[in-house]
């Protein structure tokens, strides 16, 4: 993604586009506000939701965790990401993340209200509606994500599973502030 801004020289934007294309990428232009809202929804809030769910497992008996299926593993996989990296990302995009979380909270409040009396008229229909809305959302995700060229995939794998995996948690990159 390339975000154009009035303070960025057009030549820098052209260079960024060219670099992305030379590396085999598909360059997408977004204005900064659209970028922040987009990454909040497709990256930052999924990380938060995964981490929050995974944190609920801290005191779960190991016998119970031994019964976990692929759904829990899929949902919590990204919770293993480096906390220090996410502190910086979430703080930098807090307003967009909060707006998305308010929407999630409204959906959770709706589901909680329904589940508090699951035998009430329309309760099962409301649960089905919420699940159907999830089906509709996931159906919109392209089957194949945009991928890095194979050479860059190998380089990324060689560095470690996560960006910053070579640094301890909450350790900022040199030259940056926490």
From TrEMBL:
UniProt cross-references to InterPro entries, sorted A to Z: 6-PGluconate_DH-like_C_sf (IPR008927), PDH_C (IPR046825), Preph/Arog_dehydrog (IPR050812), Prephen_DH (IPR003099)
Protein's name in the database: Prephenate/arogenate dehydrogenase domain-containing protein
Example GO BP: tyrosine biosynthetic process
Transmembrane feature ranges: none
Species name: Rothia kristinae
Pfam families, per the entry: PDH_C (PF20463)
Residue ranges of every copy of the Prephenate/arogenate dehydrogenase domain listed in the record: 1-149
Region feature (Disordered): 142-178
Keywords (A to Z) from UniProt: Oxidoreductase
Gene Ontology molecular function: NAD+ binding; prephenate dehydrogenase (NAD+) activity; prephenate dehydrogenase (NADP+) activity
